[in-house]
Amino acid sequence: MAARRVDALLLTDSNALLSGILTDKDITMKVIAPELDFRNTPASKVMTKNPIYVLSDSLAVDALQKMVQGKFRHLPVVENGEVIALLDIAKCLYDAIARMERAAEKGKAIADAVEGVEKHWGTSLPGPNAFIETLRERMFKPNLSTILTENSKVVIVSPFDTVVMATKKMLEFRSSSAIVTIDNKPRGILTSKDILTRVIAQDIPAESTLVEKVMTPNPESVTIDTPIVDALHHMHDGKFLHLPVVDRDGVTVAIVDVLHIAHAAIATVGNATSVNNEGGSSMMQKFWDSAMALAPIDDEDDTRSEGLLKLVSESGEIGKSFAYPKTTHPNSFAFKIQDKRGRMHRFICDSRSLTGLITAILQRLGSEIDRNNLPQILYEDEDEDKVVLASDSDLTAAVEHARSAGWKGLKLHLDYSGTSNRRGSQSSAGGLEAGQADAWASAYSTAAAGAALVAGLGVVAFLRRSGN
């Protein structure tokens, strides 16, 4: 765990079936605090047995709900009885937000989607602008003070306490961290990960090692006025799992961990998006689908949640080292499309949904697409003919043909000509097939829903700066 810089580990039995999960908190609370001999204690004695898991084809929103309701941070993903990934709720959330934020900063695709979908929303439904404003009002303002209770307790230890003494205090308050103080002034923080990496992994005696030797000195802190999503960014950027919170006088009033922050952010989205759970789940699912249709964030460190990419619709990077990104989901397939600058975009999405395919295109090329003259979506076959994708069944047939031919992906084209000399085309000049027209409208709606939620979370910079 220390070598991989992770705070959770999955354990399997002799048949490679999932049997437990072990976290740094388990080690702190179940091994160090009760003074077990960690050198000779089997993992099976202290792990959480038979952990809850999801299947690889589960919806992202269902996985999130399991983690929020169960109040746990990690969730294994299983396929054909074998574990293929471990979701981290905080990394999943940050990855999705960062993708949306990156897209908003680099182009107007999401803004165009919001503007475009207004044409498809009738007066009988609330307009997207009103919805965005409601989210902005409810979600820009909430800060850490809204999730801290009056009974929030901070575990205080001395730098001259032993690690065992400190963990016993942490166990008493069921906390995975403690503030280290001298004369009531903070000098450091001791967390379960510090104990994992600096005590267990270094094989030093916890009963005689002083806290000052293994604590993190002079930790960064935030105020109670810090927005929840800003705190998530702060923890990700600094690679913190715990964050001290100080009041307006600089006194430490709480320590929030990454699980607490992630749950608070997701709960805020769910509460603000709809008055009923079904609507909230639908909007949250659109948020994840929209985010995962975007290209991955530039940061390639270990904070990316590969598990979420496998759980939802995978996205590949733009690069020259490979032809198409890899896909493991049976219903996913790889595509590539060229923008007006000649750059090739490669991505993976569900091969059963034309709307999903167009949404993925929209997220990459949205600012280049003329909403008043929407293009036909074409793919290139083995004869280099360009064939129209007019429906879900057309897309499914094209992918099945590509797979049978041993292709790793399909090359797509946008055609604005409006002519009818393309294979499979039955459109009139200047028009779209009904199936494609409906798919475009749905894709704009999906992108707008994702944009609205991101706006509510406060991470879309252009909406934050504008007064619209």
Number of strands: 18
Name the helicity range: 40-55%
Instruction: Provide the spatial order of strands within the biggest beta sheet.
Output: 15-14-18-16-17
The backbone outline, from C-alpha atoms, is: elongated
Number of helices: 17
Beta fraction: 15-25%
From the alpha carbons, calculate the radius of gyration and give it in angstroms.
25 Å
Give the low-pLDDT segments.
106-110, 116-136, 272-277, 298-325, 425-430, 454-468
Question: Can I get a quick summary?
Answer:
The chain is of the alpha+beta class and 468 residues long. Helix content is 41%, strand content 19%. Helix 3 links the parallel strand 4 (54-55) and strand 5.
Model description:
The chain is α+β, with helices and mostly antiparallel strands and 468 residues long. It contains 17 helices and 18 strands. It has helices spanning 24-32, 43-46, 60-70, 89-106, 109-117, 128-139, 163-172, 192-200, 211-214, 228-238, 258-273, 277-293, 306-311, 354-365, 392-404, 434-457, 461-465, and strands spanning 8-12, 18-23, 48-49, 54-55, 74-79, 82-88, 156-157, 177-182, 185-191, 216-217, 222-223, 242-246, 252-257, 332-338, 344-350, 376-380, 386-388, 409-415. Strands 15-14-18-16-17 form a five-stranded mixed beta sheet, covered by helices on one side. The longest helix is centred in the last third of the chain and has 24 residues, at 434-457. 43% of the residues are buried.
